[in-house]
Amino acid sequence: MSVQRTIHVGGEWRGAASGATREILDPADAKPFAVIAEGGAEDADAAIAAARRAFDEGPWPRTPVAERAALLRRVADLLVRDREKIGLLESRDAGKTVEEGRVDVDCVADAFRYFADLAIGEGAGRVVDAGSEEIHSVVVHEPVGVCSMITPWNYPLLQASWKIAPALAAGNTFVIKPSEITPLTTVVLVELLVEAGLPAGVANIVTGPGASVGARLADHPDVDLISFTGGLLSGTKVALAAAADVKKVALELGGKNPNVVFADACETEDGFDTAVDQALNAAFIHSGQVCSAGSRLIIEESVRERFVAELARRAGKIRLGRGTEDGVECGPLVSEQQRDKTESYVASALAEGAVLRSGGKRPEPSAVRPADGYFYEPTVLDQCHREMRVVREETFGPILTVETFRTEDEAVALANDTEYGLAGGVWTADAGRARRVAGRLRHGTVWINDFHPYLPQAEWGGFGKSGVGRELGPAGLAEYREAKHVYQNLAPKPVRWFAG
């Protein structure tokens, strides 16, 4: 198997300076299907130097915003052209179904188009009334500079686009480090940027581990901004490393997301069916490996037993298998480590008194489910409480915990009883209650009678330990720009402050 040159620096594809490589495993069967360059701090230094030169001396930051937007739209068109190929690669790399991979490609194309339009719409600056016709005052926005980007393994292509598209729209240069276990579609995205005509040095990628490449991207003095999506522990290290140079920092650090179901949402058969279906979707899409997964079902006590029984029955029927196989609804976990972590959470929950209603084990191998794959059954744990580790911590696996409430106040208290605050859902037929509860939840996104959809036009990010800053929406573009006030006196005259 030949080694892919997956490090792109200053317009050149290359191997690692050390010559190191890494095998990329298909999580469905634990077999390698690609070998890539394993970069290190030396490669990161070279990439940052290239991005610095491209920003300080190159054309991109000074390219008219309309031309930058046109390039972003070309990238979107190339994504559409290669949708099937990229969707399949995302499936093999991250373990998700091919259809999920295709949807990710569609969402990435939408993000590039959105930020292209937004940059043009906000490109003229804001005139400030100084109260005098002799003063011309305007606030303009300029690119931050060199951006370091570190992305996670669960949505490698999507998370890369949420950073790259606004950064380029604003006129920045960047170095991106994808997760070392799911880097391949990010490499393809950089290839498409080059094909679309992006000048050399603007887009750089270094594939390699966080301990060397990620750490250098965070603490390098020539980096102006670092955007990180990943776990809380790693995000804290990134923030500390960036603090020495007072870099701009944007962190998206996950969540422990409540899905609150009131009894009135289940009064009709259609309502009950929809709420159960959406609870499954909230918890088990991509095997629960989603930062916004609705992994905490908080349900009104009067409907708990019926709801959980049906939920567990349907969870047991989810078709697990290789994401490229027809009829498969859920793929494997991304790695052996992630499956071991899932097993540990289930074991601790049962030891602390949780009741297993479905799943809780590795499935039997089958024609679509190789024995060596990292599969784990969708698991429903009933009678959980806030002191349990599985309820407090982000599991990032196919685990749904069930808690109950009796009053609206109790439901809100349970939903907010987390150090995170990324997202949450509320299910009710009472419009007034929906608005009240949504208003009281301390989470960056709140869905009412839905779960998981997002819009590129709307900001994404969380409260508390879910991070700082926002991606998507106008605020997502603002992360990559600096505001500058330009004050021009059209009729200067002496001030006479000093007698002279």
From TrEMBL:
Gene3D superfamilies: Aldehyde Dehydrogenase, Chain A, domain 1, Aldehyde Dehydrogenase, Chain A, domain 2. The keyword NAD applies. Pathway: Amine and polyamine biosynthesis; betaine biosynthesis via choline pathway; betaine from betaine aldehyde: step 1/1. PANTHER family: BETAINE ALDEHYDE DEHYDROGENASE (PTHR43860), BETAINE ALDEHYDE DEHYDROGENASE-RELATED (PTHR43860:SF2). It comes from the Bacteria. Pfam families: Aldedh. InterPro entries: Ald_DH/histidinol_DH, Ald_DH_C, Ald_DH_CS_CYS, Ald_DH_CS_GLU, Ald_DH_N, Aldehyde_DH_dom. Residues 13-486 form the Aldehyde dehydrogenase domain. PROSITE patterns: ALDEHYDE_DEHYDR_CYS, ALDEHYDE_DEHYDR_GLU. This is Aldehyde dehydrogenase family protein. The active site is at 252. Belongs to the aldehyde dehydrogenase family. Keywords: NAD, Oxidoreductase.
